Amino acid sequence: TNTVPFEVIIPKRKIVVEDYTGTWCGYCPSVAYAVEECHAATNDIAVVAIHKTASSNPDPMHFDDIQILQNEFGVSGFPSARINRSTVWSSPYELSSILSMAGVDTDLAVGILSKLDGSTLSVRVDVVYENGSGTGDKLVVYLLESGVIHEQTNYYNSDPTSPYYQQGNPISDFVHNEALRVSLTEVLGDNISATAELEEFSKTFTVNIPEEYNSTNLSLVAMVVSADNAAKNAQFADIDEDKAYE
Questions:
Q1: Spatial contact of 192 and 133, defined as CB atoms under 8 Å apart
Q2: What is the pLDDT of residues 66-109, one digit of tens each?
Q3: Which of 31, 135, 171, 178 is the most exposed place for a label (fewest CB within 10 A)?
Q4: How far is CA 173 from CA 31, 45, 98, 147, in A?
Q5: Helix, strand, coil share of the chain (percent; to 5)
Q6: Residue 90 DSSP symbol
Q7: Alpha helix segments (H runs only) across the chain
Q8: pTM higher than the cut 0.85
Q9: CA–CA distance, 77 with 20 (Å, rounded to integer)
Q10: What count of other Cβ atoms lies within 10 Å of the Cβ of residue 71?
Q11: Cis peptide before 29 (omega within 30 of 0)
Q12: For the chain, how far is it from start to end, CA to CA, in angstroms?
């Protein structure tokens, strides 16, 4: 008989951080900087930057369905940030709000496998529950783009306490990361069918990548949300990466 390795995985929780932002928003760099600090402190966060165009100042990363998200999560002013879709992350954007939860043991794991063939992206997302799915659970899958260089309005240019002090207003070469480009599911998620404990739920997606996107800078975020749209766990992966359960 063949020897088959057996591995027990205790899933680690990845915290979803969503940044409602715009290139026209002079105070929005403060959230971008806080997100950078989060990335430096933990690998257990899945970040989504959701851009909106202002009437007098278009944002090239504008997400067409942003109003659905704003209405659902009570987002009015910008910048605005949410933790796991359910908690407002307010200035001064304390890292402890995220680090206290990131990487803790949980009972739900998410895996992502993707393949880019020319301009066609194929994605499979796998979900497994230790205790079975919850009524109303949904799967949300987003395509993101990083490394987008575009000017950013900066109201901190004259503030010596800010990391953006004397960087200009606007900052001409600001690097925008993890910008939400496409929702592969419905923007608030697709229903997860009733799934027993340790049974795998899988869903596949195919999307054509627009020419203006830099395919080398694309990534995916998948999250499982409850009936009230709070994120239960998440996973992120680069394109062409096989990201197993963690």
A1: yes
A2: 999 999 999 999 999 999 999 999 999 999 999 999 999 999 99
A3: 135
A4: 17, 25, 29, 11
A5: 10, 40, 50
A6: -
A7: 29-41, 66-73, 96-99
A8: yes
A9: 9
A10: 10
A11: no
A12: 29
